[in-house]
Amino acid sequence: MKTGWFLAAVAAAAFTAPVAAQDAGGFKLGVTGGTLGIGPEASYRLSENIGLRANATFLGFSRDVGSSDVDYNGKLKLNSFGAMLDVHPFGGGFRLSGGARISNNKVRLRATPTTSAEIGDTTYTPAQIGTLSGNVKANDFAPTLTLGWAGGLSPGFSVGIEAGAMFQGSPEINALRATGTLATNAAFQASLEAEEREIEDDIDNFKVYPVVQLSVGYRF
Question: Which of 82, 89, 90, 106 is nearest to 164 (CA)?
Answer without folding.
Answer: 82
